[in-house]
Amino acid sequence: MMNHDDDVYDDDRPSKSQRKRDMHHMQDLGEALLKLRPDQWASLDLPERLQDALREAKRLTAHGAIRRQLQFIGKLMRDVEPEPIQRYLDALGNASVEHTAWLHRMERWRDRLLEEHDALTELAEQYPAADLQVMRQLIRNAHREREQNKPPKAYRELFQQLKQLEQEPGIPHHDAAEEDDDA
């Protein structure tokens, strides 16, 4: 038989289902951390024991061993604040999307330069630092390579030149000062 005091106590604790969902979420975060490089773990100020467990998981090859190691990582993750890690992972995802968009923008410029006569003028207006003489030469060489079925050396070099015109979106750096501002 349950008394009234037990009911009040049970209401304050998360349900077993909620604890299980939280545990799986932490294990998923640990699995996402496993996809990062060790220097990124260090920038998140993860406990050394957790970093060691992540290194061990990267070393393992047997499916069962990896699964057990992930469960262990999930257990260690219970002692870690998940919000900064989630923010960092979300920022990495956004950085990846931004980087892909940037690469596509540079590829479109290259294609336009090779196909549209007035594209070089537009490029010069948008990127005043562009070396137009080098660009013209690369465009001519790329056309010649295409006509002669040669390897696309100038085509690739044109892309490299375009990439230098606009700063490449970077991977976010975890900053402890940011956390202090949020607190």
Automatic annotation (TrEMBL):
Biased composition (Basic and acidic residues): 1-15
SUPFAM superfamilies, per database record: PSPTO4464-like
GO biological process: assembly of large subunit precursor of preribosome
Chief location of this protein within or outside the cell: cytoplasm
UniProt KW rRNA-binding keyword: yes
Localization in the cell: Cytoplasm
Function as written in the Swiss-Prot or TrEMBL entry: Member of a network of 50S ribosomal subunit biogenesis factors which assembles along the 30S-50S interface, preventing incorrect 23S rRNA structures from forming. Promotes peptidyl transferase center (PTC) maturation.
Keyword Metal-binding: no
Example GO molecular function: rRNA binding
Designated name of the protein: Dual-action ribosomal maturation protein DarP
